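User: Please fill in residues for this 273-position structure.
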C-alpha cells in the first residue's frame, strides 16, 4: 500500500488535536493528535482498553472531549451533533452490529439514505411526481451500487434478524455506504467473522476505498494485524489512552514499543534474543 501513497493520498480530511477524554479517574485519551488524509486507509490499533472506541465515539459525536479539537475539512466540529456529522459526510459501522432485525436488508440500507431525501411531508404523503422519482433514484443507487458491491442480491428481501452474523455485518456496512460518505469509520468490521468472511470484508473495504465511483477515506479500528498491515496506508497505535506511534505499516511492525504493548516486556526481550 505504501508504494501508492503519493498517488492516492490528498489533503487532511479529519484532524484530532491534543484530544483528552476522562471518565472520572480513568484517562481514556491523553493528548491524542491524529491527521487522516483524503483517500487513505488509516488504521487504529491497540490492546483492549487502549481507548480506540472512545476515540471513534469522539469523531462521530457520541462523546465530546474535555480538551482538544476535532476538525473535519478544516472546520471545527466539537459541538456538531452526530446526525449533523453524518450530513457532513462521516459514516460509521459499530463494534457490535447495530441493525434493525425485524426489517429487511433493503429497508435497513434505505435508512442510510435519509439525509439525501429532499421531499417534504406533503409531497411524501401524495407520493407522486418529484417524490416518486426521488425514491426510484435512491432505490436504483442502493440496488445497483450497494447491493451489487456487497453481493447480497439473493437476501435483499430477507429479515436481517434471521441472517448469519457475517451477512448482518455486510448489511450494516451497506447502510453506512448509503450515506455516500467521504469518511467511513469501521469499528472492528472483522470481529466474529470466519476466514472466508474476513477475506470478503477486506475486499469490500478496498473496493470502497479504491474504486472511482466510491473513493471513500477509511478509518479502520481492527485487531486482525494481518489485515491491518495489508490494507493500511498508515497505522496509529494507542496504548492506555496514549499514542505510541503513527507510521507506515512496516515501521509499526518493527517498533519495539508496539511489540511491547502487544506481547509484554518479557516477550519483547525474547524476540530480540
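Assistant: Residues filled in for all 273 positions:
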Amino acid at each position: 500500500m505504501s508504494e501508492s501513497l503519493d498517488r492516492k493520498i490528498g489533503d487532511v480530511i479529519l484532524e484530532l488535536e491534543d484530544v483528552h477524554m476522562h471518565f472520572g479517574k480513568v484517562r481514556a485519551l491523553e493528548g491524542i493528535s491524529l491527521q487522516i488524509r483524503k483517500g487513505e486507509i488509516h488504521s487504529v490499533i491497540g490492546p483492549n482498553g487502549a481507548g480506540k472506541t472512545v476515540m471513534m465515539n469522539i469523531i462521530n459525536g457520541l462523546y465530546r472531549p474535555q480538551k482538544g479539537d476535532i476538525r473535519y475539512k478544516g472546520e471545527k466540529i466539537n459541538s456538531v451533533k452526530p446526525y449533523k456529522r453524518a450530513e457532513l459526510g462521516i459514516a460509521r459501522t459499530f463494534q457490535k452490529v447495530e441493525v434493525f432485525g425485524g426489517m429487511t436488508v433493503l429497508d435497513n440500507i434505505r435508512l442510510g439514505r435519509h439525509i439525501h431525501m429532499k421531499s417534504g411531508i406533503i409531497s411524501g404523503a401524495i407520493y407522486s411526481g418529484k417524490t416518486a422519482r426521488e425514491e426510484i433514484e435512491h432505490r436504483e443507487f442502493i440496488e445497483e451500487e450497494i447491493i451489487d458491491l456487497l453481493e447480497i442480491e439473493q437476501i435483499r428481501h430477507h429479515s436481517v434478524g434471521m441472517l448469519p452474523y457475517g451477512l448482518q455485518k455486510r448489511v450494516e456496512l451497506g447502510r453506512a455506504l448509503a450515506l455516500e460518505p467521504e469518511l467511513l469509520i469501521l469499528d472492528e468490521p472483522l470481529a466474529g467473522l470466519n476466514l472466508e468472511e474476513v477475506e470478503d470484508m477486506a475486499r469490500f473495504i478496498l473496493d470502497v476505498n479504491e474504486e472511482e465511483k466510491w473513493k471513500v477515506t477509511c478509518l479502520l479500528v481492527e485487531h486482525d494485524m494481518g489485515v491491518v498491515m495489508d490494507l493500511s496506508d498508515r497505522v496509529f497505535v494507542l496504548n492506555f489512552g496514549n499514542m505510541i506511534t503513527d507510521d507506515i505499516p512496516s515501521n509499526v511492525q518493527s517498533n519495539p514499543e508496539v511489540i511491547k504493548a502487544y506481547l509484554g516486556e518479557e516477550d519483547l526481550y525474547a524476540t530480540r534474543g
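For context: The CA atoms of residues 61 and 83 lie 8 Å apart.
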